[in-house]
Amino acid sequence: RYTLEPKSSSALEGHLGPLTGLCPSPDHPSLLASSSEDKTVRLWDLRVQSGCVSVIQQVDEALSCAFGKGSGLLAVGVGCHVDFFDARQTKQESRGASGGAQGGSRGSGERLGRYADVHTDMVTKVVFHPSQTTTLASASEDGLVCLYDTGVSQADEALACILNAESPVRDMTFFGAKGDGLALLTGSEGTSVWHWPSALRALDVEDLRQSAGSFNREKALFSIQYHYDQGTDRLRLALSDVEGSVTVVEVQPGGEMHPLLRLESGHKCLVRAVDSHNGTWVTGGEDARLCLWNEKEQEGQVNQSTAFDRKQKKGKKFAPHFQPY
Q: How far apart are CA 99 and CA 93, in angstroms?
């Protein structure tokens, strides 16, 4: 229904490689973190044109980042590990406290802690639970999703739950009124929905492209990531074509998808990360650009809806108390 146009000064420059993840701070509306294949995580102040206020150097490609609520804790997926940093202490040296995953020395980009030896392949996504502020989920190319209590420093003791998606996981998000739902995107362009407290898989979709293709008949669309809007209780899915246009759709409980908006003319190649930040949409692409978008209601350019060709796992049933939408 809407087409979003990039702001006049929409491109924030700084990364030297493709962007892999975006995460707004739950505590500071103008603060945004971005991860990249250039082995850095950058913190951005969206109030200023120069944007970047801090760079956290990594030892490997950073494929995802996530802010913890109320703690300043920043989790980063680096290699097969989840590393932790204090976003409040990345601009100048400081001596401070320790405890849990936060334990260790503080400083300009110094690692506070690490969860290692849990995943056997690249960690592709990290995300904190929206209300259970110490609960963190990590997803990997090894097909596993691990949930931790970050108040515990050692990974084997912090590990609370493991879900096996049986396929490399590229993205995930918590959703639902209590955050009991977990929606996953796989490397094979499939998706699955879980009730993670009971480790029950509720829904499997083998190939989103069969449904998403009807929104853009001229160009192939690739799923990027999910976004859950707590205010409206809506689960959204962002898809990109190879020329950098993004289509955002709303996912209904029965698997039907309704187009919401399109982001155009900001990127020159595939978009890898999308987030809705304080009324502003933010995108990051393989062109190393970070773009901000104004929302303007225009004549609808995407007005179809489609449904998943879904397949429920044999032997798996919806938990009676699972009401994710």
A: 19
The CA dihedral of 310, 316, 322, 325, to the nearest 10 degrees, is -10
Three-class SS state of 89: helix
- Alpha carbon distances (Å) from 20 to 116, 193, 197, 284: 21, 22, 28, 7
Cβ within 8 Å of residue 16, ≥6 positions away? 36, 38, 288
The bridge status of strand 290-294 relative to strand 2-12 is antiparallel
Angstrom distance (rounded) from CA 43 to CA 255: 35
- Rounded average pLDDT per 10-residue block, the chain, 325 residues: 47 84 89 92 83 87 92 92 87 36 45 92 96 95 96 88 94 94 89 92 79 61 87 88 89 78 87 81 88 58 36 36 28
Q: How many angstroms separate the CA atoms of 209 and 203, rounded?
A: 17
Of 289, 309, 299, 297, nearest to 16 by C-alpha is 289
Q: What is the DSSP string of 244-275?
A: S-EEEEEEPTTSEEEEEEEE-SS-SS-EEEEE
Q: Distance of alpha carbon 102 from its chain centroid, rounded? A: 22
